[in-house]
Amino acid sequence: MDLRSGRAFWPLTNGLMHTYPPLSGDERADVLVIGAGITGALMADQLTAAGLNVVVTDLRDAAFGSTSASTALLQYEIDTNLVDLIPMTGQADAERAYHLCREAIDMVRDLTAELPDDCGFRERGSLYYASNRRDARMLAQEHAARTRAGLNVEHLDARNLKARFGITAPAALFSRDGAEVDPYRLAQHLLQRAQSRGARVYDRTEVTRLDEPRDRHGGDFTAHTDRNAKIQARWVIVATGYEAEKFLGRRLAQLKNSYALATEPIAETDGELWPTGCLIWETARPYLYARTTQDGRVVIGGEDDNHHSPARRERALPAKQKRLERKLGKLLPHLHPETAFAWAGTFGETKDGLAYIGPREKGDRLLFALGYGGNGITYSVQAARLLTDLIQGEEHDDLRIFRLDR
């Protein structure tokens, strides 16, 4: 199934960075990672750094699915506000989830410092503005909850918001903890580094059936592929987004489409396109979100709707593009953008906004790394850490927050 429509910005601006062959013969590994997008790439990098023998497969070209459609706003804020998450999970777990996403931003910064280039990583603040007056009251409560949790966030009233950011809204929260990155370039560099450590990456190779070992605690999984070749592995990590239901037997997330566009570089600036160049998003659901790129473009997205089929998503794209253009003009009227690329992607949305990370059930060696929602990359960074440690015999309590049976 096509995960995106239109002309996604990242693969076009980067070109075909690397190519990977399809599987042509049987393989054996400590860990098989199914999925070669940003989640699978982060997993492969972390696993090989730990000295594990890794094979990565993808039924598409590597990083050409949801990764290439991502707008890659790196935020610690979860799609579910902290004040709403606390009743769902308890205060300690809700606050810990927020802190894990904040820590993941620093981990991405450290990763990009080790790679051949910075992958477009830039530390940015995050501006979360109220879409209406009722949400302004909610933001005051959210500010108090985040402050109690030890998160550094500033509350802005309408006057200060307009003066500092030029945005007209009843209120906003501003956090200095945020960043942006090029997800396609990051995934490709991580896959290359994993390869240099001995990982084998095969794209255009679909795992059609996964045979589990008879002994839950011993023996290997056997992954059958559409290439008439098999992969045997002691551990399997499924990093295929919502397509994971094929290996899980049930759906964990509701499918949504999100639409995005990238403008041509905007020349009428001698620095940032708006004050601090921060990430911008709103309290409405679905929400509008915006960021910049290193070459002076604006990337804006939103207009989410329920997913039905790739064809229907494709038909909706022109009208969604027009709506995004109008919203960008209203939000930042001083800009005079021209759309260069417009695309849409399908993603999964969970009830609590949290990822699903861990074994199918306790003791399983079939593991899942499913980011979902607006925090897919930050969740995947933590999934790579948590699952690598689990394979090496160290089970973190943090896995409990993201367990599949919650």
TrEMBL record:
It comes from Deinococcus radiotolerans. PANTHER family: PUTATIBE OXIDOREDUCTASE, SARCOSINE DEHYDROGENASE-RELATED. The lineage of its organism: Bacteria, Thermotogati, Deinococcota, Deinococci, Deinococcales. Residues 30-390 form the FAD dependent oxidoreductase domain. Gene3D superfamilies: D-Amino Acid Oxidase, subunit A, domain 2, FAD/NAD(P)-binding domain. It holds the Pfam family DAO. This is Oxidoreductase.
